[in-house]
Amino acid sequence: MNTTETSLEYAFPRALTAPDLAADIDAADDIYGWLIGSWSLEVVHYRGVDLCGRGLMAEAHFARVLEGRAIGDVWIMPARGSRETPEWHASGMNSMNMYGMTLRTWDPQLRAWRIAWNNPAAGHRETQIGRRAGRDIVQTGARPDGQATRWRFTEITPERFHWIGEALDSDGQTWRIEGEFLATRVSG
Questions:
Q1: Which of 19, 27, 127, 165 is most buried, judged by most C-beta within 10 A?
Q2: Residue 59 maps to which CATH number?
Q3: C-alpha R_g of the chain
Q4: What pTM was computed for the model?
């Protein structure tokens, strides 16, 4: 491979990623900056199925993007080392395919983060608004069909977090867990 091909290969990642928070965003508004890096995810629930103890692992990677005005991430389930293996197909869990991306963009007029999630592996997308709620981060929004959703980052430490994804039942009162992950920071 020649030098021109190598530099073109990395042109997109270099144009996308940013080393720091944009100067026009206050540090107090940087509610997602602590996520920068890679995380190992233990899958506890997904699509209403209790997976605790089943050993399904996922991964997530976060970076500052778009001149530091956004946080981009990639969520992958199962983790890349387990995808498309005979064991995965035999387990019946291949319907839990996730290889999606979130873009969290700071909106200075709203003073909140606009979130767009897209998982083309499963044809799933959502939009939400993210804000701090005490020690947690809560994102609320709706699916294209109008169903209300709530995603929460809880039990946040520099090395761990608990992520809970919920949808509002048709009764308009009950939040149902659809996804739950226990995250541990990957060092290095």
A1: 165
A2: 2.40.128.20
A3: 17
A4: 0.86
